[in-house]
């Protein structure tokens, strides 16, 4: 049927691209949500780092391990927070890049869909014109 109805094949291709666009939008929303979570973790850990910098080196510092508080040295606490900040920052960078890539991919698919829809409209208009010419020729003959 696709061979006898090129408009149907074009419409199916458009539908396929629209589905790709929807999937990209879903992925982008998930990535943005993940990025918000990471940004919250980053802010929280930066605040912890600032608090550690304000503390005296001999201050008692505890970290929670499960339901238990364990004494920790000032240096260990600062190292742990610094490593955590490094990891969170790299995750933030990765998610920002992924979001940017998905946005670009979405724009490209959107443009492609618009072009395909325009081509379908032009093909439809040409088919209508051809049918009108055929009917006019039959009426004259």
Brief rundown of the structure:
By secondary structure, this protein is mainly α. Helix content is 82%, strand content 7%.
Instruction: Measure the end-to-end span.
Output: 31 Å
Which secondary-structure class do the elements indicate? mainly alpha
Mean pLDDT metric: 92
Q: How many alpha or pi helices?
A: 2
How much helicity do the residues have? over 70%
Outline type: rod-shaped
| Low-pLDDT sequence parts | none
Q: What integer value in Å does the Rg equal?
A: 30 Å
For the secondary structure, the number of strands is: 2
Order of helices and strands: HEEH
How would you portray this structure in words?
This protein has 141 residues and is mainly alpha-helical. Helices cover 82% and strands 7% of the residues. It has 2 helices and 2 strands, in the order αββα. Strands 1-2 form a two-stranded antiparallel sheet. A hairpin with a 2-residue loop joins β1 and β2. α1 (6-54) runs antiparallel to α2 (74-140). The longest helix has 67 residues, at 74-140. The chain is rod-shaped and about 105 Å long. The two termini are 31 Å apart. The mean pLDDT is 92.
């Amino acid at each position: 049927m696709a061979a006898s109805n090129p408009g149907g094949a074009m419409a199916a291709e458009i539908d396929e691209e629209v589905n790709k666009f929807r999937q990209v939008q879903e992925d982008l929303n998930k990535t943005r949500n993940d990025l918000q979570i990471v940004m919250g973790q980053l802010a929280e850990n930066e605040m912890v780092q600032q608090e550690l910098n304000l503390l005296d080196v001999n201050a008692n510092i505890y970290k929670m391990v499960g339901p238990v508080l364990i004494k920790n040295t000032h240096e260990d606490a600062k190292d742990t927070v610094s490593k955590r900040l490094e990891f969170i920052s790299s995750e933030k960078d990765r998610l920002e890049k992924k979001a940017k890539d998905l946005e670009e991919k979405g724009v490209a698919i959107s443009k492609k869909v618009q072009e395909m829809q325009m081509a379908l409209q032009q093909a439809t208009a040409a088919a209508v014109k051809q049918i009108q010419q055929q009917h006019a020729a039959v009426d004259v003959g």
